[in-house]
Amino acid sequence: MRRRHALIVDDERLARRELRTLLEKGHAQAVHVVGEAASVAEAARLAEATDADLVFLDITLAHESGFDLLLHLGADVDVVFVTAHDAHAIRAFDVNAIDYLLKPVEPERLARTIARCMAAPRAEETARPLTVDDRLFLRLDGARAFIRVGDIVAIHAAGDESLVHLAGRPAAARTPRSLAQWEARLPERWFARVHRSAIVNLEYVTRVDEWSHASYLVHLRGLPEPVRMSRRYGMRVRDRLG
Questions:
Q1: Structure confidence by residue, pLDDT tens digits, 149-191
Q2: Which of 34, 63, 216, 235 is the most core-located residue (most Cβ within 10 A)?
Q3: For the domain 135-241, what is the CATH code?
């Protein structure tokens, strides 16, 4: 497996130097540091100018947020957060990051992170359950975007990927996350599987019509066409809707 090409983004020069030393002394065969940056603008320029596919990103950059850099990264760039705070500092964000590191970075902990960086794909099954107020940083139609879980109206399977319908967005967007991965993490109180190929947000359901002896049509606010619900799921969902 080829080496990962990494950027270190931190507004503290000493912190950048310490992390670079750890990477070069302990993981030179796995990771090659191609640049360092102290600001979002500088990091964005480096990300575009280099072939970096991995970013070690401090969450707090002087008067900036490290999250602002994410919108400038390519869809194939992985992120490892580096923070002086505990994991709760990033709980509100699920940005498909490979890992997070607490400062000061310990060599043993860094080694586990590098192992994750070299393993592909990252296992989704270990990720925590979502809430409707969580913000996801997803690859949508090849670009990256923040979305709020509660703004997801419906999700349709598209092979091993999925099509996500969002409130206020006219067309569905494709994302690499499968329907099974969505179902495993979405909050059950709000979301329900209505078909083997569809999940809906119950808060957006306006009515349910019987369509045939084997299925129903679920109408959702903001969607021009209803979503088919098979009878297999129908009774369970209708009971939840009251």
A1: 999 999 999 999 999 999 999 899 999 899 999 999 999 999 9
A2: 216
A3: 2.40.50.1020
